[in-house]
């Protein structure tokens, strides 16, 4: 009876050992091609995370506008204190203040010219906010394809090794090759998903800042139409 139980325990232990999966071991044993693919994906992940956090804090800073900013601008413009209004825009570091400052510098010209100047300045501000964000979209699309490339390379290597074994299918050799091939696909999908989510998050936050700039610009133009 004790011998039977011991044999069962040994069998369970063996099965447990066989099912143990080490991602690190799979990566390190994936061959030169697999290691190059994984290394490239890690580089893309690092780039994506850097761009996301750099743009996130830049957009967050751009979204901060003093609630009294427009009230002060209205008071200065109504009183004819254009220099004071320009100085306020210069000391307030935000896309909205730069748009309003551009509009103030055009006061005295036709309203269409002022509106055009604000629109052109707004395009430049949006371009600054969206700097490098398109790289995230590129990584989101390229990472899964790079991972799939690693899968194809792994499958080719596995089939080549099986062919060189004299036509006899070695299940262990085949399973190792499949594990290695799938590892690159998983890594590519993970990087792609992270880049896709971060890209969309930045787009949403940028749209909010753009809407804020448009609202303040309209408010400024309304002020010029009716300074009183």
TrEMBL record:
Task: Supply the InterPro entries for this chain.
Answer: ExbB/TolQ_transport (IPR050790), MotA_ExbB_proton_chnl (IPR002898)
Where does the record place a coiled coil? Answer: none
Tell whether Membrane is among the UniProt keywords.
yes
Location in the cell reads: Cell membrane; Membrane
User: What domain of life does the native source organism fall in?
Assistant: Bacteria
Can you tell me which family this protein belongs to? Belongs to the exbB/tolQ family.
Protein name in the entry: Biopolymer transporter ExbB
């Amino acid at each position: 009876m004790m011998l039977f139980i011991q044999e069962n325990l040994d069998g369970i232990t063996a099965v447990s050992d066989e099912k143990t999966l080490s991602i690190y071991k799979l990566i390190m044993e994936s061959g030169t091609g697999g290691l190059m693919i994984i290394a490239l994906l890690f580089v893309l992940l690092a780039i994506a995370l850097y761009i996301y956090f750099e743009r996130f804090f830049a957009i967050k800073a751009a979204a901060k506008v003093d609630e009294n900013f427009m009230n002060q601008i209205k008071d200065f413009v109504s009183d004819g204190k254009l220099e004071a209004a320009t100085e306020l825009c210069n000391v307030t570091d935000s896309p909205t203040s730069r748009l309003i400052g551009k509009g103030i510098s055009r006061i005295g010209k036709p309203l269409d010219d002022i509106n055009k100047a604000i629109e052109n300045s707004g395009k430049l501000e949006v371009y600054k906010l969206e700097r490098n964000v398109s790289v995230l979209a590129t990584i989101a699309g390229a990472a899964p394809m790079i991972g799939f490339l690693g899968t194809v390379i792994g499958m080719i290597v596995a089939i080549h090794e099986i062919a060189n074994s004299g036509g006899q299918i070695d299940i262990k050799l085949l399973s190792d090759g499949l594990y290695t091939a799938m590892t690159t696909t998983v890594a590519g999908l993970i990087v792609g998903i992270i880049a896709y989510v971060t890209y969309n998050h930045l787009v949403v936050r940028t749209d909010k800042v753009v809407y804020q700039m448009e609202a303040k610009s309209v408010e400024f133009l309304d002020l010029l139409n009716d300074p009183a």
